[in-house]
Task: structure prediction
Amino acid sequence: MADDSTSYDFDLFVIGAGSGGVRAGRVAAAHGARVAIAEEYRIGGTCVIRGCVPKKLLVYGSHFAEELQDAANYGWTVEKMSFDWPKLRDAVLKDVDRLNEAYTATLDNHKVERFLERATITGPHSVKLASGKELTAKVILVATGAWPIVPKFEGSEHCITSNEVFHLETLPKRVLIAGAGYIAMEFAGIFNALGCHVTVANRSNVILRGYDESLRDRLLQITMARGIEYKFNCPFQKVTKREDGAFDVHFEGQDPVCADVVMIATGRRANTNGLGLENAGIVIGERGEVPVDDTGKTSCDSIYAVGDVTDRVQLTPVAIREGQAFADRLFGTSDVRIDYSFIPSAVFSQPPLAGVGLTEGQARNAYGSVKVFSSDFRPMKNVFGHRPERGLYKMIVDAATDKILGLHMIGPEAPEILQAAAIAVKAGLTKADFDATVALHPSMAEELVLMR
Result:
């Protein structure tokens, strides 16, 4: 980068110390840039503090309910089973503290100056901290992530979001979750496994919009059999609080539901409110997102954005790659552009599902003639545990070239299996390449090379 930044306090000022911002900041500093980062909450961002990591730990914790139930079939005698929510909650929060310290140490080790307060943009090269201090930078990076959307309705103040769910004082007996996206389905599975009565209420009649329809249907069947209740085409009307502390949730045209916790999981919005982007001439999009080009640059040449705040692909690994590419491009020597095709994703529902590439519907619309291969099987683990639940793997193939267009799975450990398979799909391999690979037996993953 040209050496014309001595008139600024910093070469780079990052707003938001989540996955994308921390990666960009430390890589830029490693390239020799003078870097500062501002974070109004805790170093680590959504994924580490109130998202992927603590959520996955709760998923692991809730899985023990199923494992302990199946233990007798494997010869184990487990007596006096009980569950202590505060113990799990506090263990998860302790690990969050550990990661917060690790991320902080990473920044310190790279000599990135930290400001633990809110920063707002006051111009193309200037920011103002909550304390009133004003700083300048040659480049500003916005990495403020996204925030849960809470619709406005009577009693909405009684509801929680995924931000607060990790801090519940006690395990609720009855949980109502609004929404049916990945966050809603993951927490529905967690609370259901821990013995709570779970109701999922959604404005539409579809769960996990965007995922393959066959997998969505399978997850719906399994979760209903596990005791999760669904209310579809069911918009909220109001939430009222009872004298005993419980809540009555009222819907349009349906009977109310009583719950101890009401969780809103109806989506996330780019976190740009009050950020001051207009002071640099930047106009945000309809969902609050920061519009950027393929380098992450906004309409202001000195301001860039990465991660969820751009509302391109709201996934932690994508934010990390965008942050890395940004820092390498501006402060290093490489010019990497992010390829957003064939990004694998997963829903840590119970059972989990995972997918990469086009769904069957998307492939038919794009290619017309496609072949669909599937394996509908009962995992050995479920057979021995006397569980009727079946796994389903689907492979979508271009009929003209035999190239795999999409791979979608639901069943135990589906995300762990898909990560390796996603490499093959991303590499453009064909169905014949999978067929030519010898099965690893006995495993669930072998179904990937046995589809005929």
About this structure: The first helix runs from residue 19 to 30.
